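Fold this: Putative ionotropic receptor ligand binding domain-containing protein
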Amino acid sequence: MNTSSESNPSSSLSHSIYTSYLEHSKIDMQGEDANLYVARALRLVIENVLAQLSTTLVVAISTRHLGTARWFDYMMNNLMDSWRMVSVQLLRIRPEIVAHPVLGRKHVSLLMVDSYQGLLDTNITASNADFDEPDYYFIFLQARDHLIPKQLQLILDHCLAHFWLHCNVMIQTAQVEVLVYTYYPYTAGGCQEAHPVPVNAFDGRKWKASQMFPDKLSQMHGCPLTVLTWHQPPFVELVWDPKHNRSRGAGFEIQLVEHLARRMNFSLELVNISLLRPNAYRLAEGSIEGPIELLQQRSVNISLGYFRKTARRSQLLTTPMSYYSANLVAVLQLERYRIGSLALLVFPFDLSVWMLLLLALLIHLGIHLPSGGRGNQEGGGGGLQVVGLLLGAALARLPRPWRHRFIAAHWLWASIPLRISYQSLLFHLIRLQLYSTPSLSLDQLLAEGFQGICTANTHRLLLEMPQVARDPYSIQSLDTPYDWDILNVLTRNSNRKIFAVANQDVTLSFLHASAHPDALHVVKQPVNVEYAGMYMPKHSFLYEKVDEDIRRLDASGFIHAWRRASLSSVRLVEQVPATSRRYVNHAKLSGIYMVMAGLYLLAALVFAGELLLRQRN
């Protein structure tokens, strides 16, 4: 008994010393040849794959087991001794150490973990959640063989849930096999699933497959994508299809997304929502179930429908390249600038011409008036004769004095070119429907006291402009999402001092479809420039592929052709039949009627005056 009791302490001490030696020397993990094998595989990944994607590499070691953490440190030492090609940010993460995560963009990451919990401890999801560009994650999972399947599935599910499209997991088996797994979110067997798929293996000298991060969205196997949209022609036109009991989409943006569906082989599920007033929106973008919220909840994949790009929306959501841009223009009623009938009578001549003509008339009247009654008896009218000659009236009889005859002949011949030029200019200007010069900019309109009207979305954009922000009540928003309705309101209120702010392309379509396209005037200087595009949930893995395809279509001219065809089709559909424009509108001839009536009245007064003078003489 004593012997055994004395031997037990020495045996425990020997075991403790041996355990400490193994723990610090790491020889219990695996042989040195196996360590070099794994290090060689990692070195090729870093040099040939990760270094080609970025000049900065983030290496995070996150484990729950202390021995695995030390083994990862040992592996990093082997790598750093033989490789110095790129800047490395090395993070060591342990759950028992309370520390704030290192914030900032992590474009390419090499994560060394021993479990799914180790991946969560890195908190790298929060670091990259606010960025749109794709990230690359190469995860080295070091675990016992019987634990690998479950941990691998949890990690890939995490990649799918957080839109990590380029997410590879490398494992090492007990037989020193180095394999790489990934997932395909859309496959023939299922959609939005993360089943492990082997994509590469290391043979000791090189990786068997040349492509470490395969393209996963070129073939989506007909999986459905939910498209949130609303009726906004010509961009999106929703028509109910009773045959299939669902909405059918048309328009420029629908044509674009259908082309993407054919190219990437996915199906479309249209979800139609109603646009509400701005004061009913929670984020000034949508209601609790508005487009912004539904995208943030990831209830839908894409949202489009003349969806204007703003800094706030781009901060909350992900958007590819803008495929549509147009000016916001101010539109006026030309009736406000029409020159009146009385103003049109004096418009043909400048002020200097009218002053010279009045001076000549006064001089001729001054020559005739001193002769008094004798001049009337001899010349047949005196002052009225001077006015009659100016208007082209004939003399009843020639005056007897030779100087009066010379003055009358001179006055008659001098007034002929004046009458010809005045009458020709007058009728030419009446035919042209002359207008005064409208305002040239938004600042001039506001300075002249005009009141602007626009849609709620446009009003939100205009409030960011300094001249509107100084006086927010200078432009009012109407309860409609359509610029077409705003222009209709403008045409129905021709007597008010208002102007409309609308999209330039929609305005041109409205003018082509209007029965009186010349009744409106587009201010020369644009009010603002707006961009439209499709939106996706933040950090969506669809961004990279969709953005690439849109850029390719834009460079080849397809998007421009589709947009022009859609706008042209709206003009043809909404256009008023040409027969309704053939009738002459008598309101356009009112100026001519008033001028002729004034001339006849003046001639009647002259004739009546001559009769009275005749009877008096």
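The longest strand covers residues 324-333. DSSP finds 22 helices and 20 strands in the chain.
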